[in-house]
Amino acid sequence: MPFGERDIPPFGTLTISRSEYFSHAANGDADDMPILVQIDESMKSEVSVSDFGAAGDGVSDDTQAIQSAIDYVSLSGGGIVHIPVGVYNVGTLYILSDISLLGDSKMNTVLRSNASSGSSILVIEGVVANISRLRMVI
Amino acid sequence: MGYGDNIQLSLKPPVFISVSQVGTAGNFDALLNMPMQSEDAVPYDSDGEYDYYISRLYLNGEALPDSDKWVWSLESGMEYSMSFAYSSTIPAHLSVAIIGGDGESVQTMYDGTISYAPSGRVVFARQCHSLTISECIIEGDSVGIDVGESNILVSDCEITLRNGSTAYIVADYDTNVTEFCVNEHQATG
Questions:
Q1: Which residues on B lie below 8 Å from A134 (Cβ)?
Q2: Can you spell out the DSSP letters for A102-127?
Q3: How many pairs of residues across A and B have Cβ atoms under 8 Å apart?
Q4: Are B81 and B113 in contact (CB under 8 A)?
Q5: Residues A72, A10: one domain?
Q6: In terms of CA atoms, which chain A residue is nearest residue B123?
Q7: How far apart are the CA of B137 and the nearest CA of chain A, in angstroms?
Q8: Which end is more exposed in chain A, N or C (fewer Cβ atoms within 10 Å of the end residue's Cβ)?
Q9: Domain span at residue A14?
Q10: Secondary structure class of A11 (helix, strand, coil)
Q11: Contact B141/A138, CB-based, under 8 Å?
């Protein structure tokens, strides 16, 4: 969420996660930052696969984009990967650390296998994970 | 001599053409190509009639057990295959070395990672302390959810399978499965 959409006191303190801080800093949003930014290590990251280039148009191969979003959150210590409504053609996605994979709609957020071999859509190993509001189709 | 020993010998390591999963049991075939070698390449040994070299595969820097293969010719462009097993779902880096009489060549990394992607399972989970799947629609051919050594809660989900399969949720040993409001049915039409 851009800082501009958040209720920030002009000279107050904004508490955000570490990954969110770095994400905004990398995007050049420093001018929008309040004077004091407090990083709360207990706050988990939340990203959208759209920010990582996933198209969800039913045509593009979104495997790499969604996997990059998962890996990003994993490296940040866990959090939420948000998937907007759309049809995402994917190969196998690997969840190897604690994350929540949350879609917008049980019916209309679709992960559709593009593998001719019918390989798994989600492979999850050794983690605490939450998968919600997704339609997964082989 | 092992992985990461960045020595330059007369031997040039093979290059990967492809790595493909064979079947569903975590078996892979690597197809390799031999580059042009210099004339001073020293053979690993001889079987009495022909000289040979050793081709060796590494996963994450560890030599794969029993992966060594005798290579009889270093003719440029020669293709050969090596089979190996890798059953973990964790992606791993694959590399290869060629070994001659004066040591092991620098290794060539496979451009990508390999991992066992079981086919026919929409969701495949192992060793998850807590896995929750909620408000999802799962559509597949043979298995909806394949879970092992885990605690899993499946709630408010619909699982639809084709081809007559009824393996909606398959639980391996040492697995606790809790289901709430899970509708399981066959695809129609």
A1: 136-137
A2: EES-TTTEEEEE--TT-B-SEEEESS
A3: 110
A4: no
A5: no
A6: A122
A7: 4
A8: N
A9: 2-41
A10: coil
A11: yes
Structural domains in chain A (count): 2
- C-alpha dist (Å) from residue A56 to A83, B13, B47: 9, 41, 58
Look at the block and give the residue holding tokens 């904004």: A14
| Model-level ipTM above the cut of 0.85 | no
Residue B6, pLDDT > 50, answer no
* A92 near B CB under 8 A: yes
Q: Specify the CATH number for the domain of residue A107.
A: 2.160.20.10
Question: A60-64, B86-90, B130-134: lowest mean pLDDT where?
Answer: B86-90
**Average pLDDT value for residue range B132-151:** 93
- Measured in angstroms, the CA of B112 and the nearest CA of chain A are apart by 12
B175, amino acid identity: T
Is any Cβ of chain B less than 8 angstroms from the Cβ of A136?
Answer: yes
Compute the distance between CA of residue A49 and CA of residue A41 in angstroms, rounded to an integer: 22
8 Å CB contact of A136 and B119? no
Residues A25 and A88 in one domain: no
**CB-CB neighbors (< 8 A) of A132 in chain B:** 132-136
